[in-house]
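Sanity check. The docking grid for 6-O-phosphono-beta-D-fructofuranose depends on where the pocket ends up, so I'm generating a full predicted complex first rather than guessing from homology. Inputs follow.
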Amino acid sequence: MTHYQHPIDAAQHPAWQQLVQQREAMHDFRMQDAFANDPQRFQRFSLNHDGLLLDFSKNLLDDTTLDLLMQLAEQSQLHDAIKALFNGAPVNASEQRPALHTALRRPIGDSLVVDGEDLIPQIHAVLNQMTEMVNRIHNGLWRGYSEKPITDIVNIGIGGSFLGPQLVSEALLPFAQQGVHCHFLANIDGSEFHELSNSLNAATTLFIVSSKSFNTLETLKNAQAARRWYLAQGGTEACVDRHFIAVSSNVTAAIKFGIAPENILPIWDWVGGRYSLWSAIGLPIALSIGMSNFKELLAGAWSMDQHFQEAPFTQNMPVIMAMLGIWYSDFWQAQSYAILPYDHYLRNFTQHLQQLDMESNGKHVRQDGTPLNYNSGSVIWGGVGCNGQHAYHQLLHQGTLMVPADFIVPVVSHNQIADHHQWLYANCLSQSQALMQGKSLEQAAQELRAQGLDESEVQRLAAHKEIPGNRPSNTLVLERVCPRRLGALIALYEHKVFVQSVVWGTNAFDQWGVELGKILGEDVYERLTKQAPNTATDASTQGLINFFRNRHRG
Ligand code: F6P
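Predicted complex below; grid placement will be based on this.
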């Protein structure tokens, strides 16, 4: 097994120090000049892999910077870290375990021995179990308590047990099988349960309780509510196993909840929640698009895995994207990063990346516990284009903050309506162009003069119309949104996040920060519901508890 090296302070790498100087040297760098001076800039700063095109030419980047970023990756021992990740070394040091989501994508017949055990046969055994379940449901052989076939699937889960499956099921709606509808129930907010359950027929609904830990408050509460609802609607205790299945690594807790052992699909502790859509947590995906499409999704991700392992860093999509992110976060002090998919079916992509990136890279210490003296993960935000253009793009164009962005767009639409797709594609490209070009004060003034405004009006308005430009973005073009390309796209971001964690020396696979809120939540709940003394440790929390209690008095 490859041993995982404890990371060192990235700022001590010679390349880091040189990048600090390079940032100064690039003070007057203008992307537009770089394009004018180099007709090959697009060819030199773009990559293709398996139906995905990454154009990274609209970045604050020249050859020297790219070279230094690649040196930084080398000096961070990225080659060894990639091997460690894929071979099952304990890259998640705080929890002393590997992060083997890539194993889930390996083809049948492959082998990956970790701690003396080949994981691939187990993984494919679970895929077979999934196939069997999916076939029974799709073929109408899985019957509810009144012997009717299942028409609706409700995935009860949150975080990684929700966002990935929801993203993929919705993104691949054009590939959905007839007859089965997938729904997602994540929040503990009773209104979500109310609205969803109102639209369902208990006799033909199957619930998947999807929780790696089987210990997540929101999921357990919703699962209990679903069970009560099912019984109230006429379902019987004897038939619970026809309506509730689970995906979990905590089989004991799932059985205790009342799930039949044969209805529990396993997930391993070496699969992190936000990396779990490739496992049985992806069951709602498979139920939506069928097993062969699910396997295409895995194949697309595996293709990206191979590219990541084999391509030289200068030709390696995840490495390039990761190092550009570090360039902006640590050397230009960018604090947020926009993800802008120009495709209706990818509308949930940003949310999935929020968890993937922010739970993975929202860290303040290195793997060895030493504090970071540089920035780690950025705030990930954004949403579907063109809608964002009429909302938050103003800040991207003229705000004081630098916000690097990824534009994501397919070449082919699933739904060609008149020339809508040409307009959508044109808008995507013109936004990144506008971010780069901007408009100088002089250009703005000239346009106003050309409109016939007198000079005092020109002077009054020109500054407002000036657009700084020189704002960086990547553009990712998919041939179309299909299982294979989507698998590759998601895996691309998983690896981007991993590369960044390697350079920063952080652990991309734990999430201790979310625990405190959970514990305090229990305390506040006890005080709200009067099971504990009504004395919170701070006046703000106490005041807010009182407000709630007064409203619910008597
Ligand atoms: O609270 C954060 C988290 O642990 C995520 O990392 C995870 O994806 C989510 O909760 C759900 O966890 P589980 O699948 O164990 O219910």
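Relevant for the grid: The two ends are 63 Å apart (CA to CA).
Also worth noting: The chain has a mean pLDDT of 96.
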